[in-house]
Design brief:
Blueprint (H helix, E strand, L loop, with lengths): L1 H15 L3 E8 L2 E11 L4 E2 L6 E2 L4 H14 L21 H6 L2 H6 L18 H7 L18 H15 L3 H13 L4 E2 L2 H4 L8 E2 L8 E2 L10 H4 L2 E2 L1 H15 L8 H6 L5 E2 L10 E2 L4 E5 L2 E10 L2 E8 L4 E7 L5 H17 L24 E5 L2 E8 L2 E8 L4 H4 L2 E10 L4 E5 L5 E8 L5 E5 L2 E4 L3
Antiparallel strand pairs: 1-2, 1-14, 2-3, 4-8, 5-8, 6-7, 9-10, 10-11, 11-12, 12-13, 13-14, 15-16, 16-17, 17-18, 18-19, 19-20, 20-21, 21-22
Length: 454
């Protein structure tokens, strides 16, 4: 299969204009891999199957796995307040401080503002300092009341690992996962990446005519447990296989009970799509597609995109790592979609598209207004007989999108608050307006819930 996989990747990389990519596939108990393209346009170094890419938020599943190991060892109860283990922890709201549990962190249901990217240094105390910086972190929604993607919660989860293992998060990843699984091409620190052949992300700044190496090559170390692992596609698939082995009672790194618990739905995802899962487990995104059930996770850093899909029933897994280009999602849909269909009989749902006929919005006031959280805001306004979301971004994402983007919104089912936003190179993506039990309004946008502020 390796030669056909290589040819397919070569063709699709050229077709979709992706700078470089690496893919690995688990099927019939073996792993096949291929790589194509360039790791860095400034140097011309070619991608190989031993090249490391940033896996971004797929890192969260690794962090969740270690926490489940600690559950296996009796060192952690997922449903006790975090202050049981981190007595110094404080959020802006006392109720949240008292109520948030590890389960909330792993399932993205804590409600704490999820994009607190505080740079707390490079030392081994980085997560301790990060935890101390959470005292002014507000709630997006009440604890456990909804789902909202939360990077902050996973950095905090990394600190919990440090307290319980008495190891820094990086050491825990290496000793508890990399070494037992024989992963020779997986690192968490930029200085360790220098030992390997590595990809840099590529972005196209607003107004630029071509892609360039990103000016933000790495996340801050405080974001490590949420998204800082770099690995080859083969190492990532080896990690995925460990979870499949655990489900079958064959793993040395996780019990079957914990592997199964990670796949139990904890919360529904309002913005389910061909990319986003329908529900969230403990770390894993759960895809309940008509053709079969899939688990996985995606990751995005500045100019790099990573995708992992696993079909447990078929024993099939596919990892795709990329480092820039206008059509990364199209590459994923075509390549990973074909592999899942051919090897596991599972088909990706069709990408979202606007209705053939316009859908009227009878009460525009239910959606217009200002929605905001740390790092981004969306102002929904009426324009030219339709609606536009004006997205304003702070932080690392500014280098990719600019400080302000005007995104057309098209109604799908206004009575249910369902719209589609044209996210430019990301295509049409769900935007959902909802009311929580306490009467507060949220706009789900890009995986995050943004509270209505006026």
């Amino acid at each position: 299969m390796t030669s056909s996989l290589q040819m397919k990747l070569n063709d699709l990389l050229e077709k979709h204009g992706v700078v470089g990519a690496s893919v690995a596939v688990l099927h019939d108990g073996r792993i096949d891999a291929a790589a194509s393209g360039i790791l860095n346009l400034a140097t011309g170094v070619e991608a190989t199957t031993e090249s490391l890419f940033q896996i971004g938020s797929i890192t969260k599943v690794w962090t969740a796995t270690i926490l489940m190991q600690l559950v296996d060892e009796g060192a952690l109860d997922l449903d006790l307040p975090l202050t049981t283990y981190l007595p110094e922890l404080k959020f802006a709201e006392t109720t949240a401080t008292e109520q948030v549990t590890t389960r909330h962190l792993l399932a993205h249901t804590s409600g704490i503002d999820g994009d607190h990217f505080a740079d707390t240094g490079r030392g081994d105390d980085v997560l301790e300092r990060y935890t101390a910086s959470l005292t002014d972190l507000e709630q997006v929604h009440p604890v456990g009341a909804a789902w909202s993607y939360c990077n902050s919660g996973y950095s905090l989860a990394g600190r919990l690992i440090e307290v319980l293992t008495k190891k820094v998060w990086d050491e825990a990843i290496r000793e508890r996962l990399c070494e037992p699984l024989g992963l020779q091409h997986t690192v968490t620190l930029p200085e360790d990446l220098l030992r390997h052949r590595a990809a840099i992300g590529h972005v196209q700044p607003p107004g630029a005519e071509e892609l360039i190496p990103t000016p933000v090559p790495f996340l801050t170390r405080s974001a490590g447990p949420a998204g800082l692992i770099c690995a080859t596609a083969t190492d990532l698939i080896t990690f995925a296989r460990a979870h499949l082995d655990a489900l079958n009672g064959l793993s040395t790194v996780l019990t079957t009970a914990s592997a199964q618990a990670m796949l139990e739905p904890q919360a529904d995802v309002p913005i389910a799509s061909s990319i986003m899962g329908n529900a969230w487990g403990l770390g894993w995104s759960l895809y309940r597609w008509p053709s079969g059930e899939v688990i996985g996770h995606d990751g995005g850093t500045s100019g790099q995109g990573a995708f992992l899909r696993i079909v447990p029933e078929a024993g099939v897994a596919v990892a795709l790592l990329t480092n820039g280009g206008p059509a990364i999602l199209e590459l994923f849909e075509e390549l990973v979609g074909e592999l899942l269909k051919n090897l596991a009989g599972v088909e990706l749902p069709a990408p979202a598209t606007p209705p053939a006929e316009p859908v009227m919005v009878t009460d525009p006031g239910t959606i217009t207004g200002h929605y905001a959280r740390r790092g981004q805001s969306v102002e929904v306004v009426e324009r030219d007989g339709g609606f536009v979301g004006i997205l304003r971004i702070d932080g690392p994402a500014t280098s990719m999108f600019g400080p302000e983007i005007h995104i057309p919104l098209v109604a799908v089912d206004p009575s249910e608050g369902r719209f589609l936003g044209n996210m430019l190179s990301l295509g049409w993506s769900p935007a959902v307006f909802t009311t929580l039990d306490d009467g507060s309004r949220l706009l789900y946008w890009g995986g995050r819930g943004l509270p209505k502020v006026d």
